[in-house]
Amino acid sequence: MHKNEVEISIDRPLQTVSKFVTRIENDLQWLGAVTGAEQTGDGEPTVGTVGWMKLSHLGWKFDVDLEVIEYDPKRAFAVRSTSGLLPFTAR
């Protein structure tokens, strides 16, 4: 499996950053290939929360359904695709 890693340092409190990046709809603001994104259902994300993304990359346009598979606001957040062209996990 191919692994792609990117590290970004953000000069903000952990709680502020965690609250922002764990909301699927905010991916529009910080992931370049995302052209649409939404969490399905209300409330704070937790393991099992689902959502979707529309992506456009290198001329390809595709939709992806997502599921939150890890959620610890002080340590980790991960989603996996449950549909779409390329299976992936993002942590």
Can you give keywords for this protein?
91 residues; mainly beta; Alpha-D-Glucose-1,6-Bisphosphate, Chain A, domain 4; five-stranded antiparallel sheet; globular
Please give a structural write-up.
This protein is mainly β and 91 residues long. The protein has one domain (14-90): START domain (Alpha-D-Glucose-1,6-Bisphosphate, Chain A, domain 4, 2-Layer Sandwich), CATH 3.30.530. Helices cover 13% and strands 40% of the residues. It contains 2 helices and 5 strands. Strands 1-2-3-4-5 form a 5-stranded antiparallel sheet, with no helix packed on it. The protein is globular. The relative contact order is 0.17.
Helix fraction, binned, reads 10-25%
How many domains make up the coordinates? 1
CATH superfamily: START domain
Overall number of strands: 5
Strand order of the largest sheet: 1-2-3-4-5
CATH architecture type: 2-Layer Sandwich
Separation of the first and last Cα atoms: 15 Å
SSE run: HHEEEEE
Radius of gyration: 13 Å
For this structure, what is the CATH class? Alpha Beta
- Average pLDDT, rounded to a whole number, is 89
Question: Structural class, judged by helices and strands?
Answer: mainly beta
What would you call the shape? globular
| Beta-strand residue percentage | 35-45%
Count of alpha and pi helical runs: 2
CATH topology: Alpha-D-Glucose-1,6-Bisphosphate, Chain A, domain 4
Q: Describe the main β-sheet briefly.
A: 5 strands, antiparallel
